[in-house]
Structure formats: C-alpha cells, structure tokens
Design a protein that fits this description.
nine-stranded antiparallel β-sheet; mainly beta; 9 strands; 2 helices
Length: 172
C-alpha cells in the first residue's frame, strides 16, 4: 500500500525591504524531537537577535532562550558607551562554556557581537546551539551581557553566566 509520510526537519525564512530585514530559522532534531530557533531583525540603527530551544525531557520541559539588543543606548562615560544588552536563561539545560580560544565562536558571544547577522550556515548555527546547550534535568543557567565601545575605537562585550545544578559556576 502507498502510505506516504511527511516531515519538516528545518525551515528558514528571510524578508528584506530597503534597510530593514527579518530572517529566521527553525531546526528539528530527528533523534530527540528537540527544536532550535533563530530570529534576527535588522534596521539602520537597531539589531535584534534571539536564539531558543525546546525539548521534552523525561516529561519535563527543557528550555533555552537568549535575546540580544544591539542599539546604541548612548549612556556611560566615553570609555564605556553602552551599545547593546543581552540576557537569557536555560531551564533543564546545561551550558558548555568554551575554552578561551573559542570564546568568539560561542553562540551567546557571536550573537551579541553581531556576527550572526547573516550566517552563511544558519542551520549549522542552530546545531551548535543544540551542542552547546544540551538538555539536562536539574540544570539551570542565567546569562547577562553588555556590549560597549571605548572612545568609539574598540568594541567589546562582557558576558556573565551563572550555572546552577550539581555544581554552581560563575563565568565572566
């Protein structure tokens, strides 16, 4: 008998009109029924990015959400002009913090620094989210970041993460 089955494992959308663009992607992991998503909104003086993931784990929700607002707020002294903010959390999610040599490629840092504005491989970025933030019962984390520039010469980003669970870890 002919019994076709249909499935959607990933989806990417993009819209651009003049200086404003909107793009996003959704990836479903076939082996765990986990979902990862990425949305980006770009306008002349504003850039918003959001990453997220959801999975049912042993009957409980496992959630990860991280948002970035890159917008010149214009507060602070000249050596520390705030140019963006970010925040996120993970519930029943672990966070694999990279070593010092791979910090720039870490999704929370690359999102805040604007290097995911138009990734060549958005589905690869979503797979990295799945690897860096694996579902794990009893784990919880929070992340807060600030993007700033110094005398309009040096762009920097500071990220503070707090991981709670079997062990408590604070990373900057």
């Amino acid at each position: 008998p002919f019994e076709p089955e249909f499935a959607l494992s990933g989806l990417g959308l993009s819209y651009s009109k003049g200086p404003v663009s909107l793009s996003g992607g959704l990836l479903k992991s076939e082996d765990t029924d986990a979902y990862q998503g990425l949305v980006m909104i770009k306008a002349p003086s504003l850039n918003i990015a959001a990453l997220g993931a959801y999975q049912s784990l042993e009957g409980q929700a496992s959630i990860f959400v991280y948002g970035v607002l890159n917008f010149s707020i214009g507060i602070g002294p000249p050596f520390l002009q705030v140019a963006g903010l970010s925040a996120g959390f993970g519930y029943n999610r672990a966070m694999e913090v990279p070593d010092i040599h791979h910090v720039a490629d870490f999704p929370l840092v690359s999102a805040a620094m604007g290097t995911i504005e138009g990734p060549a491989d958005p589905m690869g970025m979503l797979r990295q989210v799945q690897q860096r933030f694996p579902a794990q019962t009893g784990e919880l984390f929070f992340a807060f970041g600030i993007k700033f520039n110094t005398f309009k010469l040096l762009d920097s980003f500071a990220l503070l993460t707090l991981r709670l669970g079997d062990k408590t870890k604070l990373d900057i």
